[in-house]
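quick one
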Amino acid sequence: MRPFWGNLMMNEVSYQGWRNAKLKSCPQSAEELFVEIGGLVDLSDTEKAAIRTNCRRSNMAIYQCRNDFVDRDAVRAFASNFGLHRLDHHLCANEDGVSELSVASRGIRTEYVPYSSRSLSWHTDGYYNEPSRHVQAVVLHCANPAAAGGENALFDPEIAYIRLRDENPDFITALEHPECMTIPANTGAQGEIRPAVCGPVFSRDVRSGAIHMRYSARKKNIQWRDDVLTRTARKFLTEILADDKEPIFHYRLRAGEGLISNNVLHNRTAFEDGPGHRRLIYRARFYDRIDSR
Ligand SMILES: [Fe+2]
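structure w/ fe (ii) ion:
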């Protein structure tokens, strides 16, 4: 789906065309996102086309891989088929830029919730990154599910944008404000790990014009711009994310399955590991958007 261009006031006609096409083609269930593939490193043209189609419709696809041997190199090779090359080498990633999400028992990862068995509230990845390092796309590959739990909910940020704009276009103005959402500095025992980052919730990807969303529902460690419109917009967004009539997809990845997305909104339920069931998800974050042409 082609993004619309221009600012809020000038582009109402092109916005309405984009909005209507988007809502018409939007999937209504996780099953509509499925694409069966033979292996991550040798995708056929048909498999690639099916993944691209789903990403055009909903900014995401869930692949189901018949070949069960997958390592971090395979995840990177898979991603490169979709123009995803520039990895976000963040604090907890391996040297190759791919993270292993599992329950950490030692080291820096024990300080961060994604590396625990706790639940994660709604967010987009890298919301604490500065604008030059916006996470545009993410691949999550499930090497091994937990014994219980670890389900994700997934929601296309473009639908969130539409709901907010339909309710009140001023919500978008508030959420596009450059000082809308501030993440305070991350400071450890050795000093500052990352400076404070301030920016909008919604912005446009310079290359494609597509909407980029930066969001966290965390109550702690987020400073929101203190005005009525921002508060009301946030409240409305919270309601959308709790509305079971919205096309929010609840899915628990099984071994060999993965999600490729333009960094869609997501959360995670808590989970429990057990003998032979230690949850392991490979995660690769990119500064590129999925090339879904
Ligand atoms: Fe995440």
